[in-house]
Structure formats: C-alpha cells, structure tokens
Write a structure and sequence with these properties.
Layout (H helix, E strand, L loop, with lengths): L1 H34 L12 H11 L3 H40 L3 H4 L4 H14 L5 H14 L8 H9 L4 H7 L4 H19 L2
Length: 198
C-alpha cells in the first residue's frame, strides 16, 4: 500500500511537470507569433511606400507623370525666384559701391544717396535686370524733358526699360522726337559723368 501511494505521487508529479512544459511551449509559440505580423494585419511590405509603388501600375504610369510634372513646375518657379533675387542683390550691391566710390554723386544730381538707393531698390522689384547707370540716366532724362513732355517721367522710362526697350526707344514711344531724345540722353550722360567727378 505504501508503495502504491509513492507510485501515485511520482505519476502525479510527472503529470504536473508535463502539463507545465506544455503550457510554457504554448506561451512561447504565441509570443513568437505576436512578434511577427499580427493576425488579420496587412501583409509583409504593406504600407504607405507600397501604395506609392503600386499607384504607378494601377494608373498606367499617370501618377508618375503627375508627380514629375509637379516637381518640375515647382523647381522652375523656385529657380526663377532664386535667379531674380540673386540679380537684385548683385545690382543693389553694385549701386552701393557706386555711391560709396562717388560720395558727392547724389548731391550733384540734386538728391541724396539714401533717396537714390531707396528708389533704385524699389525699381529692382519690378525689373531685377535694371542697372544702376540706367536708373540714374532715366531719372536725369525725365527731369530734363518733363517740362516739355509731361508724359516723360522716371516711371514711364523705367517701364520701357522693363519691357526690353532702350531709353531712346522709350522716349520715341512717348512722343519725343529722335534728335531731342538723343540730345536728352547725351545731356544725362554728361551730368552723370560730372556727378561722378570724371
């Protein structure tokens, strides 16, 4: 009887041990399963990138073309904007150097360096390719002709330059005769040279 009880105890202990091992094995199996793709979740490789990759095939390449066109158009505007800003900075710096090298220039042209610089920078916003010499010439030509030709103003001459016209062509379009226009340009050129001290 005593031996039977001992055997029953051994069998019970062995059964408990086996049950524990099975429970551990089952738990580990579930843990590994959870570490991979969850049940019912998207397949491997699914997600935002996969959607973009498949959009090209699903749209017969139209999505690629659309993305490319948007990028090109954006870059084009950005490049033009950068070029415009760079030209403005370059011309503005040249004007500052001119005024620094010839400190009496503005006063001799009946203005101040600050007013001349400020007006030029405003003009550059419309026409970043405008050179400082062109701007000063436009102001002098307008000052000399305005009393005889009221429509000849600095603004009207600058508008012509912005449209790719020369000062002479602009004056002609404003009704100034060819000879008078040439003389006005010569006078302005002489005034500017005198203002520079050379």
């Amino acid at each position: 009887m005593h031996h039977k009880i001992q055997w029953l105890g051994v069998i019970f202990s062995a059964s408990c041990l086996l049950a524990g091992v099975n429970i551990l094995a089952s738990a580990q199996g579930r843990g590994h399963g959870q570490g991979g793709a969850p049940a019912g979740g998207p397949p491997a490789g699914a997600g935002v990138g996969r959607g973009i990759d498949t959009s090209s095939g699903n749209s017969n390449g139209r999505s690629d073309t659309g993305r490319s066109m948007a990028s090109d158009r954006s870059n084009g505007r950005s490049d033009a904007g950068f070029d415009r800003a760079a030209m403005q900075r370059e011309n503005s710096a040249a004007a500052n150097k001119e005024l620094k090298d010839h400190p009496e220039m503005a006063a001799r042209l009946h203005t101040t360096a600050n007013d001349l610089r400020r007006s030029y920078q405003t003009a550059l916003l419309t026409n970043p390719n405008l050179k400082f010499g062109q701007f000063v010439a436009a102001t002098r030509v307008a000052a000399n002709l305005h009393s005889r030709h009221p429509n000849v103003t600095t603004a009207s001459i600058l508008a012509g330059l912005a449209n790719g016209k020369s000062i002479g062509q602009t004056l002609h379009n404003l009704g100034v005769g060819k000879d008078e226009a040439k003389e006005a340009e010569k006078t302005a050129d002489r005034e500017i040279k005198d203002a520079r001290g050379r």
